[in-house]
Structures are given as structure tokens and as C-alpha cells.
């Protein structure tokens, strides 16, 4: 995802440079030709060149879509259920490990918390492991979204959607429901805490 972002950004910078250069030249030159009413060659060029540029963006984009849909053998499966207006989580590989995750109220926050983004229960996941997320909803449409992990999966009542990702560093990753799912739609934050494998095993052992 980062490589694709850099690739696309370079193409956008090239386009921006050419457009700014042409605008400056047009603004500063004094050339006038009242008989020039059409230009077939320039019209062909500014139709074909953008099409070629779009191909250079589309090919790696489609490749990335297929790579992200590839199902690896997951080390861990996490079931996520969207409710109005909070998330509940079940660690499907373990017995009786489930909890609800609500937004931290403003009067209970400390200086280290992010307003409207922190939760009372973090999702603890091991780093450097393939994680499968199975997403559904109990009432209305939701969307489980963590931008920094490149994950956005719709939570649909009566349907299971899945996606997978790998976290390559420890830390906190924040997200929110990105579906307009009702009055408190903006108060469904997601906090993923990435830890090393030993810490995760100790945490899951204490819960189960």
C-alpha cells in the first residue's frame, strides 16, 4: 500500500508540474494567432496521454486488490460485531474470550487519551502474525475501518465479511465506523493494540 501510494504520488507530481509549467507559459508569453481555431494533434495528445497514465495507475492498483484479497492461513481469527453504537469482539480460537468496546467518556479521559477515538477495551493483537477479521452486524450497517492498517470491511446484518492483515510493528492503531449508521455513528471508535507474541499469550491466558 505504501509503495502504491508513493508510485501514484510521483505520477500526480509529474502531472502537476507539467500543468503549472503550461499555465505559467500561457500567462507570460505574448504570442497571438487569431487564425488558430483548432488543433487536431494537441487534442489527440491530451486524450491519449491521460489514458496511458491511467493504465500506469490501474495495473498496480488491480494487482494490490488481488494481493489484499488473498487468504493466508491465519494465526488468529477475530470476530467483530457492530452494534448501535459500539463494537463487540470474540476471539474465535479461544473459549469464552469476548468483550464489548465502548468509546471512553470525556469525563473519564486522561491527558494521554484521544477524544472520540479511545475505547475502554482495546483489541489486543500479536504483531508479525496474519490476522483474519470476520465482520458482521447485529442491527444496521456498520463499517470496521482502520486506515493505518489499510482495512475497511462492511459489517452487514446476516452476513459475514472477512479480511486479513499483518501488523509489522507494536503500537496503537485507531479507527472508526465509516458507515453512517445512526445518531451515534461517530462514537464507534476502534483501538487495536499491537503487542509481541508473549505479551498476547499472557493477556489471552488471563482472560480465558
TrEMBL record:
Q: Where does it live in the cell?
A: Mitochondrion inner membrane
Might you name a Gene Ontology BP term for this protein? ATP synthesis coupled electron transport
GO CC terms, sorted? mitochondrial inner membrane
The record, for CDD domains, names: CcO_II_C (cd13912)
| Broad class of where this protein is predominantly found | mitochondrion
List the molecular function annotations (GO) for this entry.
copper ion binding; cytochrome-c oxidase activity; oxidoreductase activity
Superkingdom field: Eukaryota
- Name the catalysed reactions: 4 Fe(II)-[cytochrome c] + O2 + 8 H(+)(in) = 4 Fe(III)-[cytochrome c] + 2 H2O + 4 H(+)(out)
Is Transmembrane among this UniProt entry's keywords? yes
Annotated Cytochrome oxidase subunit II copper A binding domain residues: 73-206
Question: What InterPro entries does the entry give?
Answer: CcO_II, CcO_II-like_C, CcO_II_C, Copper_CuA, Cupredoxin, Cyt_c_oxidase_su2, Cyt_c_oxidase_su2_TM_dom, Cyt_c_oxidase_su2_TM_sf
> Sorted alphabetically, which PROSITE patterns does this protein's record hold?
COX2, COX2_CUA, COX2_TM
Which NCBIfam families does this chain map to? CoxB
Quaternary organization: Component of the cytochrome c oxidase (complex IV, CIV), a multisubunit enzyme composed of a catalytic core of 3 subunits and several supernumerary subunits. The complex exists as a monomer or a dimer and forms supercomplexes (SCs) in the inner mitochondrial membrane with ubiquinol-cytochrome c oxidoreductase (cytochrome b-c1 complex, complex III, CIII).
The function of this protein is: Component of the cytochrome c oxidase, the last enzyme in the mitochondrial electron transport chain which drives oxidative phosphorylation. The respiratory chain contains 3 multisubunit complexes succinate dehydrogenase (complex II, CII), ubiquinol-cytochrome c oxidoreductase (cytochrome b-c1 complex, complex III, CIII) and cytochrome c oxidase (complex IV, CIV), that cooperate to transfer electrons derived from NADH and succinate to molecular oxygen, creating an electrochemical gradient over the inner membrane that drives transmembrane transport and the ATP synthase.
Report the family membership.
Answer: Belongs to the cytochrome c oxidase subunit 2 family.
The protein in question is named: Cytochrome c oxidase subunit 2
Cite the source lineage. Eukaryota, Metazoa, Ecdysozoa, Arthropoda, Hexapoda
Q: Which gene encodes it?
A: COII
Amino acid at each position: 500500500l505504501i509503495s502504491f501510494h508513493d508510485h501514484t504520488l510521483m505520477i500526480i507530481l509529474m502531472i502537476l508540474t507539467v500543468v503549472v509549467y503550461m499555465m505559467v507559459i500561457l500567462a507570460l508569453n505574448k504570442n497571438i494567432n487569431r487564425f488558430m481555431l483548432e488543433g487536431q494533434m494537441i487534442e489527440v495528445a491530451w486524450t491519449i496521454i491521460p489514458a496511458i497514465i491511467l493504465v500506469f495507475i490501474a495495473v498496480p492498483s488491480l494487482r494490490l486488490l488481488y494481493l489484499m484479497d488473498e487468504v493466508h492461513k491465519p494465526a488468529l481469527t477475530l470476530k467483530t460485531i457492530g452494534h448501535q453504537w459500539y463494537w463487540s469482539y470474540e476471539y474465535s480460537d479461544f473459549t469464552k474470550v469476548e468483550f464489548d468496546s465502548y468509546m471512553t467518556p470525556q469525563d473519564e479521559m486522561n491527558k494521554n487519551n484521544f477524544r472520540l477515538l479511545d475505547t475502554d477495551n482495546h483489541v489486543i493483537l500479536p504483531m508479525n502474525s496474519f490476522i483474519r477479521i470476520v465482520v458482521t452486524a447485529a442491527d444496521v450497517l456498520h463499517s470496521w475501518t482502520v486506515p493505518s492498517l489499510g482495512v475497511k470491511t462492511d459489517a452487514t446484518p446476516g452476513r459475514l465479511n472477512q479480511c486479513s492483515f499483518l501488523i509489522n510493528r507494536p503500537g496503537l492503531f485507531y479507527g472508526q465506523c465509516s458507515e453512517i449508521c445512526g445518531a451515534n455513528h461517530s462514537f464507534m471508535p476502534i483501538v487495536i493494540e499491537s503487542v509481541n507474541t508473549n505479551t498476547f499469550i499472557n493477556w489471552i491466558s488471563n482472560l480465558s
